[in-house]
Each structure stands twice: as structure tokens, then as C-alpha cells.
Amino acid sequence: MKTRAAVAWKAGQPLTIETVDLAGPKAGEVLVEIKATGICHTDYYTLSGADPEGIFPSILGHEGAGVVVDVGPGVKSLRKGDHVIPLYTPECRECKFCLSQKTNLCQAIRSTQGRGLMPDATSRFSLNGQDLFHYMGTSTFSNYIVVPEIALAKIREDAPFDKVCYIGCGVTTGIGAVLFTANVEAGANVVVFGLGGIGLNVIQGAKMVGAGKIIGVDLNPEREKMAREFGMTHFINPNDVENVVDAIVQLTDGGADYSFECIGNTKVMRDALECTHKGWGRSIIIGVAEAGAEISTRPFQLVTGRKWEGSAFGGARGRTDVPKIVDWYMEGKINIDSLITHKLKLDDINKGFELMKAGESIRSVVEF
Ligand code: NAD
Ligand code: AHE
Ligand code: ZN
To answer: Can you name a GO cellular component term (predicted)?
Structure first.
């Protein structure tokens, strides 16, 4: 079949809208009509050329929601008409990683996914006979996609696509990092570095669990207002203080219990670790840093009890947890609407990247 999609031809170049060929679902695969997709900073990161796994030409996008149109042979858990959110972190419930119950990082299809291919090592997308690569196993900047069954969360049918698409990455990543990865307890002091589409969801998660002080750090002063609405109690602009770490240590009587880096800046990652409390502070890296980047600190920081950790997709097991997060939204327990600052049509998708770069949007959502 044919589908409209935004194609990334080369690093650093705007996407172009094309009508591409999409082959039908093979065994264990599902054809999905994407109704809406968010634009995450990670899409920008890959388009910029900084992603060691970035390959072109490809169809980016990993924050979508849509409807099952067709299923391939052997698909048991989904049928035509089901509403779904594609998962860049699948949940096969069979691999060593899933069975360990220690991680959400299902590895069933990770190697082909990282090479822009379906599990049988081929692409379903092409244009004029040239293959186009998939991205993060999702490619939600295409109106129609083919995805393995294990990479789809079935969600309730009354949930609006243009809002719950954001649960496909940003909402789950931020709230999940607090609830599933760090398991932050009531009363704990939390610091969030970077108050964008991810960081504001970390703040929302910290508020949900009854955190004590919730300190937000961002270079963009415009972020303060929205962050306070989501539960931030203190704001620090690094330009306004001599030393961010000292300012946080002072505010928290010796250091934060938890910190979250939601930028992808390795210098900030160091600050995020070093502002946590001696003996028990935990710093969770969420931000994705460019190829070749490395983190550093004095090992003494770890010897004296701080822990450096990371979180992917908020530690969420997609097929199990995503439908629950959709329920939280529908029950009014979490706010997604205020974070979606811009709605765009596919033809204007490059505008979404510009708004992000200019710090003008939290999330832009493209509706098909
Ligand atoms: P965003 O662009 O919406 O937000 C980034 C925020 O950081 C902005 O508000 C910006 O002003 C602020 N910032 C930039 N440099 C700063 C600095 N030096 N000090 C303080 N603030 C600074 O991006 P996003 O969509 O929220 O994504 C944030 C990061 O999380 C990206 O690196 C993205 O790739 C990553 N990410 C990771 C996961 C995961 O599963 N681990 C999931 C989604 C996104
Ligand atoms: N290809 C990148 C990896 C980027 C990365 O860490 N991605 C996160 C999700 S970001 C969503 O916005 C993730 O899930 N990582 C785990 C994984 O298996 O990729 C690189 O730097 O190589
Ligand atoms: Zn993302």
C-alpha cells in the first residue's frame, strides 16, 4: 500500500513529505494507522546526526497512537480496530530480560530495531524501489506503519489519540522514572535538570508520590511557570547562581535524595550526581548524549554512597504499564493536555523541530 510519511534523507536536513510504499505485515506483525504522533527531543537528536545508531534515509518518530488495520499470520493478542500505542521498548514476556523481572529492556528484537529493520532483517518501507529504514521500531512520522505484535500496547478506545500519543514516550519516560526506576518515596527531595517534555513529567511524577522539595533547573526562564503548575517548589536558573550544586546542597540540607537529568548534557549529569546527598543520593540519567560523549566524576562521589543510574522508557514494561498510564490520564490523575503546546499537520512537521530548538514548545503533536 501507499502511505504519507515524513522522510529523513540526511543528517541535519529538514524532513520531506513523501508518498512511500509500505509492504504488508508478515508473521507476528501488525499494520497500524497512526492517528497522531508527538515530536520528542530524541527524534531531533537522531536527525542532527549525533546518534551512533542514526541511519538514513529513514522515517523517524516514536511517540504515536493509532488503530490496528490488519494483522499478519500468528498474531493473537490484537485484531483489526484495536487502539494501540507503538512501543520502542517492546515486551515479549519471553526473553531473558523480560523473564528476569529486573529490567524493562526487552531484547527480543533490539538488534534489528537498532539497524532500522524489522525482525526478519528487512524493511517494509520503500520509495521508487529504494528501501527506507525504520526508526526505533516505530517510525510514527508515517501515517501507516508495520510493527511486531510485541511492540504494541492495546489501549482503551475512548482515549484521544492526539493526547495519549505522548504516553508513547515522554509521559511514560518522565513519570515512570520516578515511579518505576527510582521508586521515589513521599517526603523525598527531588531535583530535575531540564524542564522540557520529559522533565515536566518527572516533576508531575514527583508530585504524584508526595515528594518534599521539587527543585527544577533550567536555562530557559520561561519554563518556571509551567513547572510550578506541575508541582515544582523551587526553581534555579544556572545563570542566576554561582554554583548550581552548592545552591541545591544548601536548599536540601546536604543534598537531594534523588536527581534526574533530562537534558542529555554530560556536564549537567555530573552536577546531577554531585548535588545528591552523601550516603544515599541517587541520580538517574534520562537524557541521551551524543556519540562519543562520556561522563566523569571523582570515584569518591560513589565511594561515599551516591548512586549513578539510568532509565529508559521510565522503566515501564510497555504492554503492561502503558494501558494503565492511559487509564491514569482518562481518570484525571495526570495532566497531558497542558504539555501539548502545539498541534501541527504532517506538512508542517519541520516547524515542530524549530519550535523545540527555539525552546518555544513543550510538546508538538502532529495529527494525520
Ligand atoms: P526538551 O528539548 O523538551 O527539553 C530539554 C530542556 O533542557 C529544555 O527546557 C532546555 O531549556 C533545558 N536545557 C538545555 N540545556 C540545559 C542546561 N545546560 N542546563 C539546564 N537546562 C538545560 O527535550 P525532552 O524531549 O524533554 O528530552 C530531554 C532529554 O531526554 C533528551 O536528551 C532526550 O533525548 C532524552 N530522552 C530520553 C528518554 C529515555 O528513555 N531515557 C526518553 C525520552 C527522551
Ligand atoms: N541510539 C541511541 C540510543 C538512544 C537511547 O538511549 N534511547 C532511549 C530511548 S530515548 C526515547 O526518546 C532508550 O530506550 N535506550 C535503550 C535502548 O535500547 O536504546 C544511542 O545513543 O546509541
Ligand atoms: Zn522520546
So the answer is: cytosol
Atom of ligand 2 nearest to the CA of 40: 12
Alpha carbons 291 and 303: distance in angstroms, whole number: 28
CB contact at 8 A, 194 and 40? no
Residue 126, pLDDT score: 98
The confidence score (pLDDT) of residue 14 equals 98
pLDDT digits (tens, 9 = 90+) for 106-128: 999 999 999 999 999 999 999 99
Is residue 132 within 8 Å of residue 7, measured between CB atoms?
Answer: yes
Residue intervals of the chain classified under CATH 3.90.180.10 are: 2-168+336-367
Q: Which CATH class is domain 174-313?
A: alpha beta
Instruction: Reduce the DSSP state of residue 193 to 3 states and report it.
Output: strand
Give the Å distance between the CA of 249 and the centre of ligand 3.
Answer: 30
In this predicted structure, what is the pLDDT of residue 283?
A: 99
CATH topology of domain 2-168+336-367: Quinone Oxidoreductase; Chain A, domain 1 (3.90.180)
Range(s) within the chain of domains with CATH label 3.40.50.720: 174-313
Per residue in 141-184, pLDDT (tens digit) is 999 999 999 999 999 999 999 999 999 999 999 999 999 999 99
CB-based neighbours (< 5 A) of ligand 3, an ion: 40, 42, 169
